[in-house]
Amino acid sequence: MGILGTGIQEGLLLKPVKYRWAMDLYDQAVANTWFPNEIQLGEDIADFKKMTDEERHAIEFLMSFFNPSELIVNKALAFGVYPYVNAPEAHLYLAKQMWEEANHCMSFEYVLETFPVDREKIYGQHIESPTIARKEAFETKFIKRMTESTLDINTTEGKQDFLRNLIAYNIIMEGIWFYSGFMVALSFRQRNLLRNYGSLIDWVVRDESLHLKFGINLILTVLEENPEVATEEFVEEVVAMIKEAVEMECEYNEEMFPSGILGLNANYVNQYVKYLADRRFEELGLPAQYNVTNPAKWMATANDTLQLVNFFESTNTSYEVNAQSTKV
After folding, report:
1. Where does Fe cation 2 bind (predicted)?
2. Contact 201, 181 (CB under 8 A)
């Protein structure tokens, strides 16, 4: 029996563990457990008040996207992944990830409750902003497909739908859009501003790096067990999906930085987005599309491309990703 299936009475015995990578990531996720109120965000209020209108706009715009997006990821997991996976070790990890997404949502609520911001304006912005609304519509399209009665996970087409949802929420939302936002958020700490907010983002990044590893491992496992899924047309579709997501993120950054702030503007962030996208292409065994350098080397040393099997060509013999943080 492979990792995909919908049997309610299957996958009820954890031992022996079949997918060790899922169990290892679950153990790491449990070890990473944290709570937002452990960080004293009130100490950042003075920084926030002395920032320029453009700087505050950038932080508020990030919150407008991040807050609902954490819950969108939970919908992608609850409707599009958990019901179609049989392995109990994968269910354990997914349950912990869903809790983490809820914890991230509460973390951003904590930011909104602490900083002197217009909460209703920030809530409304994710609907009123065309660039945020476009990103959300992109994600929900794939989630909705996973709930339709015509989807049959036992068919090649059903497995492709499963992977589309995975790529949309994991590779694109978590692996590109979130990491782009993390860089923007952490850029303030580079200027000795919002240091505790930066620490909160550090903890979110630590969780999201494991989410990304789980998703990549799940993609690789599905493809190894179902090689017929990786048609030439599907490969082209995956590349097009990611490139469309990069375009959406670039438009979003133009709205976040209409005139730029000290040390940061849309062009800078968009180069980082393209750099991230190339890392995700490579981690999936696909060729880089943008070939740009990392403009934010301060985020970490050069990204360690995961030692993974070629996404669509090779036979995988060892697809485990270790549970250390993904560098970006």
Report:
1. 174, 208, 211
2. no
CA distance 55 to 74: 29
Q: Minimum mean pLDDT among 10-19, 67-76, 92-101, 143-152: which range? A: 10-19
Contacts of 290 (CB under 8 A, 6+ apart): 246, 274, 275, 277, 278
Residue range 197-233, pLDDT digits in tens: 999 999 999 999 999 999 999 999 999 999 999 999 9
- 3-state DSSP call for residue 203? helix
Give the residue numbers of the binding site for Fe cation: 70, 101, 104, 174, 208, 211
CB 23 within 8 A of CB 92: yes
Mean pLDDT of 251-275: 91
What is the token pair recorded at 167? Answer: 């790529």
Dist CA 243 CA 119 (whole Å):
33
Residue in the structure block whose two tokens are 């706009």: 57
pTM of the model: 0.88
Which entry of 19, 82, 110, 268 is annotated as an active-site residue?
110
Bind-site residues: 70, 101, 104, 174, 208, 211
Average pLDDT over residues 162-166: 97
197 catalytic residue (yes or no): no
User: Which residues face 264 on adjacent strands?
Assistant: 261
CATH level 3 topology of 20-32+41-299: Ribonucleotide Reductase, subunit A (1.10.620)
